[in-house]
């Protein structure tokens, strides 16, 4: 790992579907190159008859998709993130850090992290263990990202080549 390359990167992007595709493509390439990657990718999922779109996070280590949307009933204005489900995922990912993956790939740094919750503690633990972190951040949360990561963070464009270049500079070579 190069000393001058920040260990934590965020793709700055407003298009959630685009970032999901970019991260899937990157994950597939890293897996093919035998890099152990821990983390989650966002999925739209069918979990039953609810009032709004169901959202899930796919555990990269197992392929399991866990529902994270919280249905609030047919009269509600929408669904919100289920903090209990996110907490369970965070506990599982924290345990996975003990296997020392080459990279922690997280779908978003968003409102939860901005508010001091979400994956914030997981990211901090990963950085404490010198495990690189890659995530995405929307412009409204960019200042919070910068404050949280300081000199350890770098912002990347929503471009596969730029993200792969960062990965190449930060990840160990695999044979």
Give a brief rundown of this model:
Helices cover 36% and strands 21% of the residues.
CATH class: Alpha Beta
**Would you report the number of β strands?**
9
Walk across the major sheet and give the strand order.
Answer: 4-3-2-7-8-1-9
Please give the share of residues in helix. Answer: 25-40%
SS summary, helix count: 6
Q: What spatial form do the alpha-carbon principal axes imply? A: globular
Which consecutive residue ranges, at least 5 long each, have pLDDT under 50? none
CATH-defined architecture: 3-Layer(aba) Sandwich
Number of domains: 1
The N- to C-terminal Cα distance equals 16 Å
Q: Considering the protein shown, what is the CATH homologous superfamily?
A: P-loop containing nucleotide triphosphate hydrolases
Please state the CA-atom Rg, rounded to the nearest Å.
16 Å
Give the helix/strand class.
alpha/beta
Write down the CATH topology: Rossmann fold
Primary descriptors:
alpha/beta, Rossmann fold, two-stranded antiparallel ribbon, 21% strand
Overview of the structural elements:
The protein is of the alpha/beta class and 175 residues long. The chain has one domain: Rossmann fold, CATH 3.40.50. Helix content is 36%, strand content 21%. It contains six helices and nine strands. The chain has helices spanning 16-32, 83-96, 111-114, 120-128, 142-149, 160-170; strands at 8-12, 37-44, 55-59, 65-67, 69-70, 80-81, 103-105, 133-137, 153-156. Strands 4-3-2-7-8-1-9 form a seven-stranded mixed beta sheet, with helices on both faces. A two-stranded antiparallel sheet has the order 5-6. Strand 3 and strand 4 (65-67) form a beta hairpin. The longest helix is centred in the N-terminal third of the chain and has 17 residues, at 16-32. The radius of gyration is 16 Å and the shape is globular. It starts with 7 loop residues before the first strand and ends in a 5-residue tail after the last helix. The model has no long low-confidence stretch (mean pLDDT 88).
């Amino acid at each position: 790992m190069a000393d001058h390359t920040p260990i934590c990167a965020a793709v700055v992007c407003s298009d959630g579907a685009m970032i999901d595709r970019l991260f899937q493509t990157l994950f597939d390439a890293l897996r093919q190159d035998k890099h152990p990657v821990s983390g989650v990718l966002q999925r739209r999922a069918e979990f039953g008859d609810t009032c709004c779109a169901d959202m899930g996070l796919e555990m990269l280590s197992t392929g399991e998709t866990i529902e994270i949307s919280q249905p609030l009933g047919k009269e509600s204005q929408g669904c919100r993130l289920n903090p209990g489900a996110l907490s369970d995922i965070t506990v599982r990912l924290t345990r996975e850090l003990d296997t020392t993956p080459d990279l922690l790939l997280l779908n978003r740094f968003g409102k939860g992290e901005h508010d001091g919750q979400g994956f914030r503690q997981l990211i901090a633990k990963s950085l404490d263990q010198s495990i690189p972190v890659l995530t995405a951040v929307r412009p409204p949360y960019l200042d919070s990202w910068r404050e949280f990561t300081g000199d350890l963070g770098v912002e990347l464009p929503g471009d596969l080549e730029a993200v792969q270049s960062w990965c190449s500079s930060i990840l160990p070579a695999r044979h």
